[in-house]
Design a protein that fits this description.
transcription regulation, elongated, single chain, HTH arsR-type domain-containing protein, alpha+beta, Arc Repressor Mutant, subunit A, three-stranded antiparallel sheet, transcription
C-alpha cells in the first residue's frame, strides 16, 4: 500500500526545523547547558554571578550568554550598571513542541499499520 501524501506536513516540518535551528545550536554546547542549569536555580544573575559558578572566563561566559539570548532562551534586564540574565524559554518550548508534533504526524502517516 502506498504511503499517504505527506508533502504539506514535510514543508511545515522543514520550516519548523529552520525556526528551531538556533535553539538546537545554542543547546548543543555543554557550557551553555551549564548556564541554563544555573539559571534554572536563580531568577536572574549577572555575568559576574554566573562566572562565579563556572570555571569559564568572563569573556567566554558573555559570549555564551549572547548566543543563548540570540536563540531566544534568555532575556536580559539592566539594573543600574549591571545586566541580569534570566531564562525565557516558553516561546522556544512552544516551537520545539510544534516541531516534534509535526514530525510525529509524518511518522505515523508513513508507518505501515496493522493491515
Amino acid at each position: 500500500m502506498d504511503h499517504p501524501d505527506t508533502t504539506h506536513l514535510e514543508l511545515v516540518v522543514h520550516k519548523q526545523l529552520q525556526q528551531c535551528s538556533s535553539i538546537f545550536l545554542a543547546l548543543a554546547d555543554p557550557v551553555r547547558q551549564d548556564i541554563i542549569m544555573i539559571l534554572t536555580k536563580h531568577e536572574a544573575l549577572n555575568v559576574a554571578q554566573i562566572v562565579e559558578r563556572t570555571p569559564m572566563s568572563r569573556s567566554a561566559i558573555s559570549h555564551h550568554l549572547k548566543i543563548l539570548k540570540q536563540a531566544g532562551l534568555l532575556t536580559s534586564s539592566k539594573v543600574g550598571t549591571e545586566i541580569y540574565y534570566s531564562l525565557d524559554i516558553e516561546d522556544s518550548v512552544t516551537l520545539l513542541k510544534a516541531f516534534l508534533e509535526t514530525t510525529e504526524q509524518i511518522l505515523v502517516l508513513k508507518t505501515p499499520g496493522d493491515e
